[in-house]
């Protein structure tokens, strides 16, 4: 079908969005043509897909969501994901992950992915219970209430939550909050922190891990720039700078969240003022880091990139790099985009073999593996 130009337009390679909503949310499609795609809504609140390098072009096309199956031959898994996103209107990183896990759990992407999704969903629930129990323990300890009967219990089991709720009764008087409200608040706070975890207890949540991995990626790009030729070094330095400009506001946001978590009693007491700020911080952090797990996963194969094929991989990475929106930048100012256009206008189209122009199956497989692993 022909594209309707009123619903499909191109942007320059250096386009920098103003907001997260304009940038869109990364969609974990495994179909190579949609490997770098993001979803957002248009001015009429219809879903659209942003696709860098679509049909061999060097621009970002905005395509009507419902038209995607007619424009691209999609895998069965991707068709199911497309339909799930259409039904749920998943346009944030968290809702996208929920839909991706739900579709992966159907087994359409294979038994390994199905089991991985099942385990990730189960781990999420257990982790949220554990965080809620720990928050209650921290709250009681901060109020000098005896927690000896709770220490040593299995924190991800419902039994400990029942006992913790009983112990929480002692906190209602000093906080001026009834037991049901107080318990619910710890539950809401735990749910908000389920992707982040706590700064001083247990295993770090996936967002803390992703931020650490992003800092490692930034250092790795700088190291590669120091070893590469002048042209390739320019890309690696650009990738490192884009990563750094993401790390700076992410670390600032995480610090603000953790400062609130240092005083759980005041969060519970001054709930209407403090909890929305914690929730907003976690949401911002999730948006800042959206898409970086796919970039980092793909770049793990960089040691094998050599010769002309290096540029094919760099083409893919250049299109995947999540540019921080202008409204979210720190004091560092505008993101350095001057090198993006040169990198993104290389000799081949993403996922094509530089010698033949045909789809490179090995690169498509690597990208698919990185995408599927990132949702867990």
Write structural notes for this entry.
With 376 residues, the protein is mostly helical. It has a domain at 10-115. It is 56% helix and 5% strand. The chain contains 16 helices and 5 strands. It has helices spanning 20-23, 68-71, 76-88, 93-104, 111-142, 158-168, 172-175, 179-192, 206-227, 230-261, 264-269, 271-289, 292-299, 309-320, 340-344, 361-374; strands at residues 10-11, 25-26, 38-41, 47-52, 60-64. The protein has a 5-stranded antiparallel sheet. α5 packs parallel to α6 (158-168), α9 (206-227) packs antiparallel against α10 (230-261) and α13 crosses α16 (361-374). The radius of gyration is 23 Å and the shape is globular.
Estimate the global geometry from the Cα principal axes: globular
DSSP summary: helix tally: 16
Percentage of residues in DSSP E strands: 5-15%
Largest beta-sheet characterization: 5 strands, antiparallel
Summarize the model shown.
This protein is mainly α. It has helices at 20-23, 68-71, 76-88, 93-104, 111-142, 158-168, 172-175, 179-192, 206-227, 230-261, 264-269, 271-289, 292-299, 309-320, 340-344, 361-374, and strands at residues 10-11, 25-26, 38-41, 47-52, 60-64.
Task: Give keywords.
5-stranded antiparallel sheet; disordered N terminus; 376 residues; mainly alpha; single chain
